[in-house]
Each structure stands twice: as C-alpha cells, then as structure tokens.
Design brief:
This is Gas vesicle protein. Keywords: Coiled coil, Membrane, Transmembrane, Transmembrane helix. The chain is mainly alpha-helical and about 120 residues long. The protein has one domain (about 1-125). The chain has two helices and no strands. The protein has helices spanning about 1-25, 30-125. Helix 1 (about 1-25) packs antiparallel against helix 2 (about 30-125). The longest helix is centred in the middle third of the chain and has 94 residues, at about 30-125. The N and C termini lie far apart (about 95 Å).
Length: about 120
C-alpha cells in the first residue's frame, strides 16, 4: 500500500516539475531570472521527493516490523500447538507400551506355566 502511494506521489511530483519547468521556459523573462526560477523549482521538487521518500521508507520499515512480529507470533503459536500434539501422541504411545508390557508379562507367565505343566506331566509319566 505504501508503495502505491509512493509511486502515485512520485508521478504527481514528476508531472508538476515538468509542468513548472515548461512554464518557466516559455515565460518571457531574462535568462538569469529563468535559471533562478528553475533552480528554486528543482530544489522544491527535490525537498518534496526526499520527504516522500523518507515517509515511504518509514512506512515500509513499520510494515516490515509489524509483519515480522505477526509471523513470530504465528510461529510461536504453531510450535506451541505442535508441542501439545506431540505430548498427546507421546502419552498415547506410553499408554500403549504399558499395555503391551503387561500382555508380554502375562504371555511369559503363561509360557512358564505351560512349560512347568509339560515338565510335570513328563515326570509323572
């Protein structure tokens, strides 16, 4: 937005400078006076242009700073959200791991019991 304003103002200033220059050149006056007028108009146009350039730079700097802050906030939010989701996934995986450990312990106990029963049957036979 600031770029469009700067471009428009630059076009207006350029047009005004060209118009003033043509008006001065066609005005019936001595060469010395015409050169002074051209010099004054050029200085005015340069001041206006420098002022607009400074304002545009400040506007762009402000916009860049605001955009950076917004992006940092969004990034922090995304990281925070991802962190919570990662915690949820880890909690679910830990729960599943505990269930698998319990099943494994039961299977090992059942296997030892079956081996003991098989050994007892062999001993009695």
């Amino acid at each position: 937005m600031a770029s469009n304003t700067g471009t428009t103002l630059l076009a207006l200033l350029t047009g005004a400078a060209i118009g003033a220059g043509i008006g001065i050149l066609y005005a019936p006056d001595q060469g010395k006076n015409t050169r002074k007028k051209i010099s004054k108009e050029t200085a005015k146009a340069q001041k206006k242009l420098n002022k607009q350039l400074k304002e545009t730079q400040e506007a762009l700097a402000t916009t860049a700073k605001d955009t950076k802050l917004t992006l940092e906030q969004k990034l922090e939010g995304a990281i925070s959200s991802a962190s919570y989701k990662a915690d949820d996934v880890l909690t679910a995986l830990e729960s599943k791991l505990e269930k698998l450990r319990a099943q494994n312990a039961k299977l090992q106990l059942d296997t030892k019991k079956a081996q003991a029963d098989t050994a007892a049957k062999k001993a009695t036979v």
